[in-house]
Fold this sequence. Notes:
Structural class: mainly beta
Amino acid sequence: xxxxxxxxxxxxxxxxxxxxxxxxxxxxxxxxxxxxxxxxxxxxxxxxxxxxxxxxxxxxxxxxxxxxxxxxxxxxxxxxxxxxxxxxxxxxxxxxxxxxxxxxxxxxxxxxxxxxxxxxxx
Length: 122
């Protein structure tokens, strides 16, 4: 199953945006799915993850502002981002597989798509 992120854009500080991650097939059996981001000059990092049992976890930097969810019927995962700050600026990716962290264990996950750019700026 290939995953592709979309929905990025330019947002003012304090604004909101929802990213979508569309799957080429069923996401029902994917054990872990997550949103990642990579800012210029920085390593790719896990932002939020969700299991097939709907357990959700977040990086400290986004806790309370971002919400991960998924719609099994639509084979789509979402990331609702509120109270956006300039430090949230990055390319956002989605991935999933048999590991909760596809950066640390890429061999347990699918291939990385192109990502979607989020820029938070006034």
